[in-house]
Amino acid sequence: MRRIFIAGNWKMHLEGRQAAELARQVARQAEDCPGIDVAVAPVFTAIVPVVEALAGSPVMVAGQNCHWEEKGAFTGEVAAEMLAAAGCRLVIIGHSERRQYFGETDETVGRKLQAALRAGLLPIVCLGESLEQRDAGQTLDVVGRQLEAVLAVFPSEQASRLTIAYEPVWAIGTGRTATAGQAQEVHTFIRQRLADKFGPDPAGQVRIQYGGSVKPGNAAELLSQPDIDGALVGGASLQADSFGAIMRAAESQGA
Ligand code: PEP
Question: How does pLDDT run across 38-88, given as a tens digit for each residue?
């Protein structure tokens, strides 16, 4: 049985004190949701205050990105080991905003994924097609290619540590959500590819989140799909009320 996993991506919002306050509110809401896993991903400078605010809470902290080297002359970068030392349990890798604005490729995603494993972090790897690619009927080709870069480096015996986030780029921050059927179709495809590579049992342990304008009003329907195991939430994770409502929708699916 895969536990539903809800993660909030706070992107470049909230400095340390604001982030710690929101983290405390999320921790309170999480007390009503013991059946799911919850994480928040603050900006790098807010990681330590958020880790401190969440002491004693099961809510986990994720980095939004990492570098593939352990240390070195890489100005402005943060190593996976440094995130782990700061108290992160997870790291988001290959978010579409990183691919779009910061030149991340399938190759760098693979290297970062290996770095995350080396550091003992749980990776959340993001995949998803653009609107042009969907309109051209290329969704499964694009997602398949992005997934290949993950499968090339990920050991099957660690499958239970892997989370994939399917995030159609046209649904991120746009208010436009994939329908539950559209999302489930891609999640089924991802699960099948995982099974081809890892075998059915390890593939069944990988959690596949959906991301793209998840809100309290659409979370329950999305999460009711058999292969949607959680959500990566951007905008709606910045308010404790809306994130809490999504967590409760997840909790009632998990129960
Ligand atoms: C995201 O940042 O991963 C995301 C899905 O954002 P939003 O929920 O705002 O679409």
Answer: 999 999 999 999 999 999 999 999 999 999 999 999 999 999 999 999 999
CA 241/CA 218 separation, integer angstroms: 15
Whether 95 is catalytic is yes
CA distance 103 to 240: 32
Nearest to 7 by CA among 45, 42, 51, 53: 42
- What spacing in Å lies between the alpha carbon of 39 and ligand 1's midpoint? 14
Rounded CA-CA distance 140/137 in Å is 8
The amino acid at 14: L
Ligand 1 mean position, distance from CA 199 (Å): 30
Residue 107 CB neighbour total at 10 angstroms: 11
Give the mean pLDDT of the chain: 96
Task: Record the pTM.
Answer: 0.97
Protein residue closest via CA to atom 1 of ligand 1: 234
With the most atoms of ligand 1 within 8 angstroms of its CB, the residue from 172, 177, 215 to mutate is 172
How does DSSP classify residue 78?
Answer: -
* Mutation to probe ligand 1, out of 96, 97, 167 (largest number of atoms < 8 A from CB): 167
Distance, in Å, from the CA atom of 145 to the CA atom of 116, rounded to the nearest integer, reads 21
* C-alpha span between 137 and 146 (Å, rounded): 16
Largest CA distance in the chain: 48
β pairing state of 37-41 and 90-93: unpaired
Instruction: Give the E-state strand segments of 94-188 in sequence order.
Output: 122-127, 163-166
> CB within 6 Å of ligand 1 — which residues?
9, 11, 167, 172-173, 211-214, 232-236
